[in-house]
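Table S2 (text version). Query chain:
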Amino acid sequence: MDKNKKIIIFAVAAVIIVAAAAAAIWLTRDPGEASPAGGIDEMSYEMPSTNVIFTEDSRETETTALSEEESYIENFLAEANTYSQTIENTSQAPSSKVFFNVVTNGTVSDDNSLEGFTGAAKDIGEIILAAGFRYDKNQQIFYSETQSWQRNWGFSPVYDAGAALVGMYYDTMRLKFTYGEHDWMLQLWKGRYGITTGAEMGVYYKDTGTDSTFYDTVPDSETITMSFALYKGDELYMTRGPEPHWWLTGFKLFDMVAPKELTLHATYFMTNDEMADALEESILDLGFIEGINYQRLGLTMTIIWN
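Corresponding structure-token output:
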């Protein structure tokens, strides 16, 4: 067996060991352990200074029936048009206006041919595909499917705590609020994942009042339509969505970038005013406006984080 394949097998084994350890810790967790209060908590968070930029979209109105995500986008674009007209009629100086960028068309090519991959790179690519991911040759990114096996694992803080053991160095942010009969957690990640760089948006919940720190992944009926744009410095690095998902991701192979070099524009197309209000109230309670540049437009919530 050549050296490259030995390295690959060792890396996969390490991931399996950490996953098994995480599962063991979760199964033996103390159900009385209190979870943090609503709002945001994170492992390595610093206040960002990047501003957001609004991008016009010139899509024509369609006369055919719209899918769920298309309906969200059409609603957003109508609101955005009203918003842009409103601010142009104010006396506010253009330099002081806060805009934001919302990805309304980050469709992936869904191609798994690994075109251009050779040798060890192709071996690694095939392992990533076998792990339940897809490959988009246009952006050259791997991304998660809606019905991937990872969906069965939910979320525990143990997963983030053990990430460094397998060479994952990322920043993460957890937004928590109560809506309906559940305590929700919308989690963001950006940074290095072994020999890849990328970002994630996760949606999880648990029954209201549950003390456990473990969250379930949401079912199809509770997914949130999401999209993101990830920047490497001033360069647009990748886009994803919008689509209803529980775990929207994108990872670029053989490009290792520090989390602080990345800026994430994450957009949630919330399902109704009550849910959007719950998320925004959680943000406001923590003085989040000063810390992270977010913008709400109707049911659309965009967060920019660097």
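Notes on Table S2: The two ends are 42 Å apart (CA to CA). The chain has a mean pLDDT of 76.
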